[in-house]
Amino acid sequence: MSYRRRLLAERRLLPLPLTRVIPILSDNHKTGTSINLPVINCKPTRRCAAACYACVGPISWMNSIRKALIVDEALRKGEIEGLIWECRHLGDVRLNGSGDMGMVHVPSILALARACPVTVFWGFTRILDVARAINRQHDNLSLIISFDATSPDQRLPGYDGPLAFGPRRPRDKVPDDRRIIVVFPEHRVGHTMPGVPLHPKDCPATRGAERRNACGRCRRCWRPFAAMESPEGQLEPGGDAT
Ligand code: SF4
What we know:
By secondary structure, the chain is an alpha/beta fold. It is globular and about 45 Å long. Strand 4 (120-125), helix 6 (128-134) and strand 5 form a beta-alpha-beta unit. It has one domain (3-152, 159-229). The strands form two sheets. It has a seven-stranded mixed β-sheet. Strands 8-9 form a two-stranded antiparallel sheet. The chain is built from eight helices and nine strands. Helix content is 28%, strand content 15%. Iron/sulfur cluster binds at residues 182, 203-205, 214-215, 218-221.
């Protein structure tokens, strides 16, 4: 499915009938569990739309799209009791396992992190205002801004937070920027695009390491501010800067 077809499918399903889903969290091969959102909130670049991971495999099936829309609606309305119940005993939860969030979701995400102090909420966004509103509010909550070679502004002036570069294609140069803590070679269902040069900050799960629960072993993106300030720009695998 292309990004455009996914977007059309989401628009066709709206408005949703009032309903709930159980569980609200989704299983994620690499990250464990995630809060999956629709792509209607996304501000994708050309690279991002072309490689959209929400358009491939089970996450792109109609029941997953419907679920993402229901979760999106619950966050917009602040209906997060079920989510708190599911998250509060977990070690970590990936935000934006698919899609992205907008400013309208921020109050619910802040409340969720406050209500689940032992759970680390982490993930990626392409929306600068969202990262600014989320970061440094709670010790257990952060978002990394993703950008790539087709992003209109690669310098993100005035933003002093963690960055992820990707999806990266063979000719894309990774900027020399201390804020970058992770690089994602473009990959599809676990297979890295041939010809993408190695980079010291490559996500290990895209470079041959076992993908299942890779984030739980690595944790670089769980504490991205600590990773950004560490001498190598990243934590040792399994390291935790808390
Ligand atoms: S760098 Fe580590 S924590 Fe970040 S996405 Fe890759 S495996 Fe997960």
